[in-house]
Amino acid sequence: MSTKNKTKTPVSELRKDLVSNTWVVVADKRSKRPHSFKKKTEKKITGKELKEEKEKCPFCHLEGKENLLTYKKKSGAWSLKVIPNDFPAFVHGTSLNVHDEGPFMVMNGVGFCEIIITRSHTRQISQMTVSEITEIVDAFQVRYLAQMNQRHIKYVSIFQNYGKEAGASLKHPHLQLIATPVVDPDIYRSLHGSRKYFEANQECVHCVMLEWERESGKRVIFENDEFVVLCPFASKIAFETRIYPKRHLAYFERSSTALKIQLAEAIGFTLARIKKKLGDPAYNFFLHTAPCDGRVYDHYHWHFEILPKISVWAGFELGTGTEICSVKPEDAAEILRKK
Question: Buried b vs exposed e over 160-190: b needs ≥16 C-beta within 10 Å?
């Protein structure tokens, strides 16, 4: 009997992202078991090695550095500082000097690069209290407000690269803020997709997704009064996680004190679960919010995204731009929900 035309059992499925209108491949049948994604625990360094590491760490020795913002404990010791980046990708300038170079357009890299540093050399965000994380969120907002109205600034990016595989050059806990004269392609695609959906349906696409996800519950990891944490239906990578305000909010910088505390709780829970369940993997953590370019983006819904470095893009992903997610988002959510 010929088997040429025999239908085979699917080993994957394609899922469409409602915002970007792009497809991702969920191919959990070709993956390892979820627990095997855990990163091998690194050998703990000795007290002497830690002391030597701290002595060489520039973030442990900030004396003489320009402080853009400082938070202090009741004892008077600093708990968080924001300083200019010594190796900036963008620097303050008065002119963009936009000009043509042959068929290309060029402009000066005008902007601001800052580093948000917490005091402890070893305590990561996943190990911090809600009040400590609230301080970080507050620093995000304060520095965002300081940069958003600077001349030429159109977007303020806030992010953390945790671990070498995610691009972190130093172990000391730190996050970054970069203010730029352009809206980056990733947020542009998100804004464009959100606007198209709103124009077609008169609804926020993120609110529609959140309502569906909360009713389903399959991909929800955590909820409090103001936020929901989930693994998106069309996850780009295994264990991709997003933190959304439940209410429709377009502008992160307008967050109230109460909202920042609730956000800190959601961030702390999520990063602690990723650390525990996946063996402390490297990750990229970033904010998507409406730009500060003077236009109105009331259709948008700000949120944070966390992308653990579980896999590496290979030829298919790089060549097509289509991601292959090797763990079903609902399975990932179930793993991260469990204590």
Answer: bbbbebbebeebbbbbbbbbbbbbeeebeeb
CA distance linking residue 317 with residue 247, whole number of Å = 34
Q: And the tokens for 190?
A: 């998100």
Res 32: pLDDT: 53
**Count of C-beta atoms within a 10 Å radius of residue 45:** 13
Residue 27 located in a structural domain: no
- Of 95, 135, 98, give the one whose Cα is nearest residue 111: 95
Query: Are residues 95 and 111 in contact, defined by beta-carbon separation less than 8 angstroms?
Result: no
This prediction has a pTM of 0.90
Where the chain has pLDDT below 50, the residues are 1-3, 33-34
Number of domain units in the chain: 1
Does a structural domain hold residue 164? yes
| 19 close to 190: Cβ distance less than 8 angstroms | yes
Question: Range of 162's domain?
Answer: 65-92+105-337
Task: Tell which residue, 208, 177, 178, has the closest CA to residue 80.
Answer: 177
SS3 276: helix
pLDDT in tens, 42-85: 566 778 889 999 999 999 999 889 999 999 998 999 999 999 99
Locate 197 and state its tokens.
């959906």
What's the one-letter identity of residue 151? R
Helix (H/G/I), strand (E/B), else coil: 322:
coil
Instruction: Report the CATH number at residue 223.
Output: 3.30.428.10
Give domain status of residue 42, yes or no.
Answer: no
In one letter, which amino acid is 12? Answer: S
